[in-house]
Amino acid sequence: MLHLYPQLTSQLDVRRVPFAKPRTEIVSLLGTDHQSCPALVIYRPLAEAATALPFKKFGDLQFLDEPEDIGNYLSLSYGIPRPH
């Protein structure tokens, strides 16, 4: 999605982490059970249209870690089309 819509990188705090586990930066946010990539951590209130997505929780954080769900969130929250 970031490749197709580079304007998102100026609207999101994008962090790239090394592929090898443990992915320390992700573990520090979401715990060892949720260090998959990609992961989208939500720090702001959800757009109403996005509340139906299958968010996971770790502590006070909500996140998505399935590419399809992340794409749907970005489409609903930032008004970009979903690639097919």
Description of the structure:
The chain is of the alpha+beta class and 84 residues long. The protein has one domain (8-78). It contains 3 helices and 3 strands; from the N terminus they run ααβββα. Strands 1-3-2 form a 3-stranded antiparallel beta sheet. A hairpin with a 2-residue loop joins strand 2 and strand 3 (61-64). The longest helix is centred in the C-terminal third of the chain and has 12 residues, at 67-78. The protein is globular and about 35 Å long.
Encode the helix/strand succession as letters.
Answer: HHEEEH
Q: In oligomeric terms, what are we looking at? A: single chain
Separation of the first and last Cα atoms: 11 Å
What is the approximate shape?
globular
Strand order of the largest sheet: 1-3-2
Helix content: 25-40%
Q: How many structurally independent domains? A: 1
Strand proportion, as a percent range, falls in 5-15%
Unreliable runs: none
Report the major sheet.
3 strands, antiparallel
Question: In terms of structural class, how would the helical and strand content be classed?
Answer: alpha+beta
Query: What Rg is obtained from the alpha carbons, in whole angstroms?
Result: 13 Å
